[in-house]
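A quick aside before the break. I want you to see a complete sequence-to-structure record at least once, exactly as it would be stored in a machine-readable document. Don't worry about memorizing anything.
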Amino acid sequence: MDFSLTEDQQLLRDTATKLVERECPPALVRDHIENPSAYEPLWRHLQEFSALGAGPATDLCLFLEQTGYAAAPGPFLATALFTSLTGGDGETTGTVAFLDDPMNPFVLEADRVEKIALVGPGANVAVFDTAVLADRLRFVSTIDYSRRTFALNTADLDINSTPVEPETFAAWVDRSNVSIAAEMTGTARRIFDMALEYAKERKQFDRPIGSFQAIQHKLAGMSLGLQRATAAVQYGAMTCDAAAGDRTLACHSAKAAAGEAARQILKDGAQIHGGIGYTWEHDLHLYLRRATADEDVLGTTSWHLDRIAGLLFDATA
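That is the input. The structure line, written in tokens, reads:
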């Protein structure tokens, strides 16, 4: 399987990288904590790429890695999931709510989108205008200040849902898992880059701390976890586009690998930064928060590892 990027994909990645560098500096993410409208100038640029939600998973994941790298606020991810579920073209902003699903209790960016797709048991989907559900939404503060989450009260709500073909829904779930994994991998890469740069600059005993073996071992482990997660995400996205037989296994593996890498990198990254890494004034916490919160979106690492075990046992039974 060829993992090399096409010229168009290289251009997409480079464009996304330059866009978030220019439009989503740490100052914007920090401003978003007190001023939720701070995302709006960035969103005017990201919205131009919303059609990626309906395109190849490989392209979407390349873009999400860069938005994850910047911990970009706004409904880009939520709209991408909505678009791929409903068959839209990305012109309409949306998000997805899972009814009675303890693994996914919150709705992402519900106050910033036009539509909410309600996913019920048995892969039944109903799409509502957000305005209709506005009084049923309650903002929930989480560790991640760069993303807004909501609880949705569906008591006595008249839901006229439409069944989704099981294979179509399964493909969407797999695509969603690898999409979250791509964003997590981007955030983990940002933490790693910050830790590596700090290890080069910070000196103790007149030597950069990066010259100490203990720090080198941490950085090497972080790098290996990051490369493993990146490869798993790329492969998972490719199986989605090819409708490969191992798609579900690959996408669970991508989410699990991204979660394991992010957990290791945020821990070691904070330790490499020492005391300054735990302060509010340092930007590191902005990305630690996003990486921590994303691990719970669409199932924790442990949950995905359980799904992987089940698939492997079924294959050998």
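Two observations worth writing down. The first helix runs from residue 7 to 23. Strands lie at 94-98, 107-108, 115-120, 124-129, 137-140, 149-152, 162-163, 203-204, 207-208. We'll return to this after the break.
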